Amino acid sequence: MSVVVKRLAELGLILPPVAKPVAAYLPAVQSGSYVYTSGQLPLVGGKLPVSGKVGAEVTVEQAKDLARVCALNALAAIEEVCGDLDQVHRVVKVVGFVASAPDFTGQPAVINGASELLGEVFGDMGLHARSAVGVAALPLGAPVEVEVQVELVG
To answer: Does the global pTM surpass 0.90?
Structure first.
């Protein structure tokens, strides 16, 4: 068992199966020493546990937890491509999209769910650049979507 998978277990987490794409794309691709994930929805068992806009139907805390699920799904997609999460040298960038009510401006707090998980899993190697963007709608009515980019060990 890899060090990262053991760390996930210590956090009470296991990598889920990689979600099937909902359109014409791959969940993650490797180019050189980098792996880029497609936007990962907070699917659990192939379904959204919650749908709607943050600041309306979905609370900030719910959305933050969903961002955490997105990051876990991204890690599963990364592992599928590189074979072992111990190959991750560092998390480089996270981009989070939040389906937001018109007056909602707390996108950074929501995407902290993903960022904090990556920090818990990778420590200093999990520190990353980030964008948190409010959008009108996301696929399947998801409240949040997260992309993760990592650099692999040379």
So the answer is: yes
